[in-house]
Structure formats: C-alpha cells, structure tokens
Design a protein that fits this description.
With about 700 residues, the protein is mostly helical. It has 24 helices and eleven strands. The chain has a three-stranded parallel sheet. β9 and β10 form a beta hairpin. The protein starts with a helix and ends with a strand.
Length: about 700
C-alpha cells in the first residue's frame, strides 16, 4: 500500500534541493513545479495547447491576409484600376456591358454577376487581348526581378543556418533556458546544482551558466529571424505563383512547346515551396534551393514569355463586343476569387478572435482557481512558518500571486513590506520556508491521506533553536504522518529524539557504506542502552564519558528550555558541571515560584502538586550529589579509583533519576517555561500533565 502510494506520488520523497526550488526559482518554473506536485499539470498543458492553437490560427490569418492581397492585386490588374472602390469597379464593368448592350449593374451584392446576359454574345468568350498582355507583362516584370527578390532575407537565412550548423544544439538551449536560469540562482559553491559536477570555484560555474543563458537568448533570436525571413520569402513565392497561374492558360492557348505545362509545374512548385517555410527544420531542408535561386524559374522562361507577348500582340484585334465579353468573364472569375479570399480572411480573423477568447477565458478561470487554491495554501504556509520562527517572525506574512508569467512568491521581513525570499532572508530561513510550503501543499493535496513522507536533509541550514520548533510542528500538525528524515548532522538527529519526534529506538544509523555491500544498518539505541552496554563490557571509562557528554547535551537543552543562567563563557565552552548546576538551580527557583503562586491563589491542589515535585526533587538530588563525584574519577585514570559494575550502575541511576525530575512521565517531553521571554508564567510539559503556575495573584 505504502509502495503504491509513493509510486503514485513521487513528491512524497524530496531532498533539500528539491524543496528549496519552490522558494528561489523564477515564477514560471515555480508555477510549473508546484502544479506538478499538486497533480495539476494538465492546467499548464491545456494552457499550452490553447496557446499553440491561437498561434496557429494567427499564422493562418496571416496567410489569409496575404492571399487576399494577391487576389485583390489580380482583380485590380484585370480591371486596370488603382483602387477597388465601388464606383471604379462598376465604372470599368459597365463600360464593357454598355458595349454589349447589357443593362448596367448599379450595386455590388453577394450574388452580383458581371457576366450576366453575355451568353447571347458571339465570339471567343475565353480571351481578351489587353487583359492577356497585362498579365504577361506583370509576370515578365516579376521574372526580371527574381535575381534580387528577397536577396537580403535569403542571405540572413543562410547566415543563421551556418550558425545552426556550427552548433546544432543551439536551438535546444531555448527549452533549457529556464532550467539553466534556475540553476544559476541556486549556485552557492563550486558544486553544480544541476548535475552535481565540481568546478574550480563558484564564479567559474556561474560564468559557464551565464554563457548557456546567452546562447539561449541567441538561439531564440535566431529562430525568430529564420521564421520571419521564411514568411517574407513565402509571401513573394505565392505572389509569383499567382502571376504564373494567370499566364499559364495563355501558354496552352498559343501552344508554345509545352509552356503552359511548364508554367503549371512552376506555379505548383512555388506554392509547395512556400508552404514549407513555416518551421526552422523545413527552412533548413530548403537551404540548397535558397542558395541556388529559390524561384526555380524554367529555363529561358523570359524568352518564352517574350515570344508569347509577341504572339498575343500579333493576334488580330477582336471586336469590341468580343473584348467586352471576355473581359466580363475574366472579371467575374477574379471577383469570385477576391470575394472568396475576403471571406476566408474574415473566417480566419473570427477564428483568431474565438481562439483568443477561449485562451483568455481558460486562463482567467484557471488563474482564478489557482489563486483561490494558493490563498488557502499561503494561509497554512504562513501558520507553519510562524510556528517555527515564533520568536523573531511572529508577524510573518506570505503572498502567492498566480499570473500568466507564473507563480510569484513574496514574504514579509520585519515590517519592511513584502519581498522575494532571497532578498533579506538567510539560507536557513529559506530552507524553513521551503519545508513549510511543501507541507502546506501536501496537506492541501492529500489532506488526511498525507500519511508518509521522506525528507532528505531538508533543514541542514536551519539553526538549532528553530529545528526544535520544526520538530514540534511535525508532532502537533502531522500526528498521523510517518516521516522518514535522513541527515548527516548528529546534533539534529539527537534533537529529533530529544523533542520526541523520533522515539529512542526509532532511528537507524548507516555505517561503512560501500558499493559492494551497501550500508551496514545499526539500530540507533537510546543513550541509557548504550551506557548499559559499555558497563556490561566492563568499559567503565567509556560509559562515564558517554554519560558526561549526554549530560552536557541535555544540560544545554534544559538550560534553554528553563531559562537557566550558567556562568558566561565567551567561547561558549560550557561543561556538564556548569550546565547541570545552573539547571538544578533554576529548577529549584521555578518550584519556589510555583509554591509562592499556589499560596497566593490559595489553591490546595496546586500546593500539593508543587510539594510533591519538591519532595521528589530532593530525593533525586540527594542521590545525585552522592554519586556525581564518581563521574570524573571514572573517566580519568586513577590508580585508587576502581568501580564495580554495580557501583557505576548506581551512578547511572542517580543521573537518570535527576533527569526524570525534569521530564514528563506521560509524554516524555522535557519541561519548559512559558513564555520564552519576559516574566515566567508556567512550568509545563507538552501534554500538560505537568503544569505549575508561576504567576502570583
């Protein structure tokens, strides 16, 4: 069951590096990472799909606009007008209809037919000499300019393709840019945060990552240039294809040695060539053609067009009626093409508007949903962080803002407003934020099903005092969650046991790891079990040293919890005597305060509880004072000091008895004073079984 849960939720197992990235990476990447953790990656994926659709619709609208310009130019060329104004169009058309004796057309409506009524006219209705000459002249003019057409665009494309050939991986840098940028922000030593490789120093590593970012920017600019130049070349290719398409029937009409077929193949070739200039890969495939002359005009096409022009000019002039008839027929064809292109452009623009509306609506709804989600997460995040840092940041606030650019994170710093986490907060506080945000997200994602998590050295930079609060946070807020916490820090491992987050025998020590055998696993036995093991082996000095170190550690913990005041030492080198004596004295003071308060409040129950604690303390101190001298003698070499196992066990029991006075029997937590600052009000344990009021009436 647990294995399946971990397989379904890999985010249950995280290292410090994976957790801290939620705090210090850029907004776009933070949004992506957190959505993946919350199983909401489909939001970003759908947003990306809709954006891609919108981009494609925008591109299609651009092509439709270009096609409309081409159809409009062909229509104007045939009518021999400068602008397609209503009066100019009808003036040119009605002039020919008047020649045929047909009624004038007074308006342009969807079913307007320029050729209406010409079926009764005689002559060749498929040819108009003047229109044909204009079409041939337009194509000849375009052919004359082929050598220089899009010359600058082609040169730019070739240069960019040379750059790409010299470094084929340059375009990959675009997709890796955010990854590299996040890595650069994480660099704090000579070890690469992306691949764990070691460098000469941190500056050399940063320079390497900055070079990658520069390459990504260069790659993006190169890609945009290639696509823009490709689009310009494609537009001109389509324009020439349209001119060729208009002349093709003339080549067949005059049977010029396959000119019509050649022009047909050229027109199709140009359109196919243009359609392949919309992506970098296909532009690269057409490099050879771009360098050799992308227009690929048939051999001697200009000579053939000149012959065709001469043949048309030598054709006897048709009667005005026939000319008018062919003019109107061709005008109707080009009107239909222009109207079709115009409708296509409108459809494309409507599609773009629909795509834009769908994209915006989805983004608004998604952002609203994510904003509500992040509001609930930020509240819980702030609560957790304030619990860990209650002494110095009890007014901590956090703001998670979802926007198109990503998820922005800002936190308060001592009433100076909201800032990025890396602006003022130390590495330890950033670590604490990362853990709190992770816990808040997992609580939102799994709720009561958040039963298991593996945290690998996630608080390595958090200071000692706040680590204690972290233990209390996990105990209080996640009582039903099994945490597996790994660390190389023995003090932190000890603190987890001291605070009761890990039971005395709930830890494992991995020793002598090797590739061949793996780690040697040792049960992390309690301190008293280890001391007993030393005594049983007859290693009294070892047991004495272990006991002394334990008393120094516990003495420091209790001095902090009870507010004891050992003699000040500038180097903080307090020994067991300094600390334990101060703790014993402070404990006595607190019980006196408790007795005084009980008398002031005239509480018989409180008087009895304090009296019982004082009696028990006296018995423990009597035993302790009778045996404490043995500890140093047992540690150091003394010819006269030889202790039997039974004798030293009595010493150990005396120390255990003393410490038991400072610990709750029910919840096994060390006693502590509240509040931590100011006048003491109570001496208590975590569960409340021990509760001594220190505040007098």
């Amino acid at each position: 069951m647990v294995i399946q849960e971990v397989a379904d939720h890999p985010e249950l197992t995280l290292t410090r590096r994976e957790i801290i990235k939620y705090i210090i990476i850029e907004a776009a990447q933070r949004s992506k990472e957190i959505q993946e953790l919350l199983k909401l990656e489909s939001i970003g994926q759908t947003r990306g799909v809709l954006k891609t659709v919108l981009n494609r619709l925008t591109t299609a609208a651009g092509h439709a606009k270009s096609a409309l310009r081409t159809a409009e130019k062909a229509f104007r060329l045939h009518l021999d007008v400068t602008d397609l104004r209503r009066e100019d169009i009808l003036g040119s058309i009605n002039l020919r209809r008047q020649t045929l004796g047909l009624s004038e057309i007074t308006g342009l409506v969807p079913d307007t037919d320029f050729a209406a009524g010409i079926l009764e006219a005689s002559g060749d209705g498929g040819f108009n000499r003047n229109s044909a000459l204009r079409d041939v002249e337009a194509l000849r003019s375009a052919v004359a300019d082929l050598a220089t057409l899009c010359h600058e665009e082609v040169q730019s494309v070739v240069r960019d393709l040379d750059t790409l050939d010299g470094d084929p991986a340059i375009l990959e840098a675009i997709t890796r840019r955010s990854f590299v940028d996040a890595g650069l922000r994480l660099v704090d030593n000579a070890d690469c945060p992306l691949c764990d490789s070691s460098w000469e120093d941190a500056e050399a590593l940063k320079a390497h990552l900055r070079a990658k970012l520069a390459k990504a920017d260069e790659a993006n600019a190169l890609q945009q240039r290639l696509l823009a130049n490709g689009a310009n070349i494609a537009d001109d290719a389509k324009r020439i294809a349209a001119l060729v398409g208009a002349v093709q029937p003339l080549g067949r009409r005059y049977d010029l040695v396959g000119l019509g077929d050649e022009l047909g193949r050229w027109s199709s070739d140009l359109r196919g060539f243009a359609s392949g200039l919309g992506a970098v890969a296909s532009i690269a495939e057409r490099r050879g053609r771009l360098e050799d002359g992308w227009s690929a005009a048939p051999n001697a096409v200009d000579d053939q067009l000149e012959v065709l022009q001469q043949m048309i000019e030598s054709t006897p002039d048709q009667s005005a009626s026939v000319a008018a008839q062919t003019f109107l027929t061709r005008a109707q064809d080009r009107l239909s093409a222009w109207r079709s292109a115009h409708r296509e452009r409108i459809r494309a623009e409507l599609a773009v508007e629909a795509g834009r509306s769908a994209y915006k609506t989805y983004c608004d709804v998604a952002d609203s949903y994510l904003s509500d989600l992040y509001r609930s997460v930020e509240d819980r995040f702030g609560e957790y962080y304030r619990e860990i840092n209650a002494e110095d940041e009890d007014g901590f606030e956090v703001k998670l803002d979802q926007a198109a650019a990503g998820l922005d994170l800002q936190v308060a710093f001592h009433n100076t407003g909201l800032h990025a986490p890396a602006a003022y907060h130390s590495e330890g506080h950033q670590d604490a934020m990362g853990v709190c945000l992770y816990l808040a997200l997992m609580k939102h994602l799994l709720g009561d099903r958040f039963r298991f998590a593996v945290l690998d050295d996630v608080v390595m930079s958090v200071d000692r005092g706040h680590r204690k609060e972290f233990c209390r946070l996990l105990k209080a807020r996640f009582p039903n969650t099994q945490f597996i916490i790994t660390t190389h820090d023995k003090v932190w491992a000890k603190q987890m046991q001291t605070e009761g987050l890990v039971e005395p025998k709930g830890g494992l020590t991995l020793q002598n790891w090797s590739v061949e055998t793996g780690p040697i696993v040792e049960q992390a036995a309690g301190i008293w079990d280890k001391i007993e093991s030393d005594v049983a082996k007859g290693e009294t000095p070892v047991a004495a040293g272990r006991l002394r170190r334990h008393m120094e550690y516990v003495g420091a913990e209790l001095a902090d919890r009870l507010g004891a005041k050992p003699p000040f030492r500038g180097d903080s080198s307090y020994d067991a005597g300094d600390l334990v004596s101060a703790v014993i004295g402070r404990h006595g003071e607190l019980l006196k305060l408790g007795a005084k308060a009980a008398n002031k409040w005239n509480s018989e129950d409180a008087k009895a509880r304090v009296a019982a604690l004082k009696d028990s303390r006296k018995e423990a101190l009597d035993a302790y004072h009778g045996e404490q001298w043995v500890l140093n003698r047992a540690i150091h070499f003394n010819d006269w000091a030889h202790f039997t196992k039974a004798e030293f066990r009595e010493v150990v029991e005396a120390f255990k008895r003393l410490l038991a006075e400072l610990r709750c029997e029910s919840c096994e937590s060390w006693l502590y004073v509240t509040p931590r600052k100011g006048s003491s009000e109570s001496l208590r344990c975590d569960c409340g079984a021990v509760m001594v009021n220190l505040k007098a009436k």
